[in-house]
Design brief:
The chain has one helix spanning about 70-80; strands at about 25, 35-45, 50-60, 65-70, 85-90, 95-100, 100-105, 105-110. By secondary structure, it is mainly β. The chain has one domain: OB fold (Dihydrolipoamide Acetyltransferase, E2P) (Beta Barrel), CATH 2.40.50. β6 and β7 form a beta hairpin. The radius of gyration is 18 Å and the shape is elongated.
């Protein structure tokens, strides 16, 4: 039955929220560093250097953080293998690789099944 003004029944109080309204620390991993926790939010778009993915993660050691996905984490997100609610581990390798004349530290990512 339709009505002019919709209102939820009692007890249905929580509505949608913007995961990124709360300002939290943004983490940039360095060689040998890791993060581990549950993905609680995601944001994606196009930036100066192409598409980006920002993940909000409840890190086991740091608490709530933002992480701009790189390497395997970014690949897994765009392949729908990494989503909100997943427990994720991300690490930056200590050895370097070369790509197009530039050296970088590869980022690896794993999620629980």
């Amino acid at each position: 039955m339709a009505s002019e003004e919709l209102s939820p029944p009692d007890g249905f109080d929580k509505g949608p929220s913007n995961d990124f309204e709360q300002d939290v620390e943004t983490i940039e991993l360095t060689a040998g560093e890791t993060l581990c926790g549950t993905v609680t939010g995601k944001d994606e778009g196009d930036g100066e250097f192409g598409p980006y993915v920002r993940l909000r993660i409840n890190d086991d050691d740091r608490g709530l953080i933002d992480y701009f996905a790189k390497g395997e984490a970014k690949q897994m997100y765009f392949a729908d293998d990494l989503a909100v609610g997943d427990d994720v581990w991300v690490g930056m390798k200590t050895e370097t690789q070369e790509h197009n004349g530039n050296e970088y530290h590869p980022t690896i990512c794993r999620v629980t099944e």
